[in-house]
User: What shape does this take?
Amino acid sequence: MGQGLKDLVLRASDARAAAPVHMITAKRAIRVLLIQPPATGGVRSLLSHVDDDGGEGIGYKPPLGLLYVASTLAAWSDHQVKVTDAQAEQRDFGDLVRIARAWRPDVIGISAWTDFWYPAYRTGELLKQACPDAHLCLGGPHLGIYPRETLEVPFVDSVVVGDGEIPFLYLCNMISHGLADNSLPGLHVKAAGGVKTGHDLFYIQGDLDELPIPDRTLLDIRNYGSVLGNDDYTTTMITSRGCPHRCTFCKLNFQKNVARTAESVVEEFRRIAALGIREVEVYDDTFSWSRSRLVAICEGLIAADLGITWAIRDRVSSQAADDETMALLHRAGCRRVHFGIESGVQAVIDRMKKRITLDQARNAVACARRARMTVLAYFMFGNLDETVDDMRATIDFALTLNADFAQFSITIPYAGTEMYDEALAKGLIEEDYWRAYARNPAPDFVPPKLIEEHADLATLLALRDEAVRRFYFRPRYILRSIGKLKSPGEFIRKARMGMQLAVSVYSR
Assistant: This one.
């Protein structure tokens, strides 16, 4: 273990007690199975591009959270680790049971997102029946909101809240000693007293460079691609954690920004290139919150000349939204930028506490287009105080931006967001249904109530479909898109996506 993170773990533990030896060392090597559960039975999406079976036409992305945890175990212990991504590998619950029985794990870790809480729950239930002596731990974004409800599930032995690499390593070392304790923040063990008081979580606040770079060979890289990409294989990367902004609809408003150095980021690009992968999607919530770091990353990639193209997610108000910075990003291989604009009405944007303007949106998209970037813009329908006229204005605004892609979604108020809390407080949502779902998940859950102040669900769906039709099925747009195709594989992916969209929005 790197000295920096060893010191971090010791300091975190000192908040409660002297660090036990199993925090740092294992008594024996154990077998660990990490699982991304299938999408089967997950929360029903209100996106137009999602298949009825839960698969997404946009392609699968590697589960970076699990890869970080697995790579940390591999780098800092002798534990044997196996990772299974049931979604990308098209595995069902029965497949996971067979894998677990064959692997005979001492510890099972399952990634839990609220959208996929039922399949995570069902996976855990079946694997605990198949491997009753294995310690079963759940981590992921869902646990940041519902740690107590999850640990109360009979077959769950522990939960990790926050950054999972260090708490899960600690857990595995602890299991190797045959012990149970709750001394490390973020790790809650049922046998050691359950969920601790307060909002007890673990976040790395120091140098992210101490974490091992994810080992992508733990999964089959051929399973991962994107309908937006030009190459057959795509991977993802995280260069920073946290977001400095506080949008009311976002669940990620609780972690301070921490970032990796440019040198670390460029080194990860080198390792990706060595695997033969030529496209990367950077999944930072906001890539360009530090201009100096952005410039250093770009200059490092230009010097490395790896032949990789990449994409970022950014704000229209960011420091990258000018011609000079966009041109630098393009020279460094960045070919696509995703902008969360959300609405074409300033009052609605302000209500979300988005802190952007429509002029900034126009400028950012125009700068990216001038730099020969592909642009994807995101919009939402059904926000607090948003009228039907506002939503139609959003569609009109989206068409004026000349973006290459647009995603129109219906706003689902999620637990842990300011929007959900306000809707509950105002009686727009009568029941805390996410907490009820966390306690008793059912397959194919549909939120029983959205924010329907000015439009019911049928109207929201009709507006979403109208937006998709008006954006994607313009003859001029179709001809322009065909002219940009670079490979047969890209044609097939985009044709499949187009057929999904057409079936979805023209079949109502």
User: Anything to note?
Assistant: The chain has a mean pLDDT of 88. Residues 488-506 form the longest helix (19 residues). The two ends are 56 Å apart (CA to CA). The domain at 225-411+456-506 is CATH 3.20.20.70 (TIM Barrel).
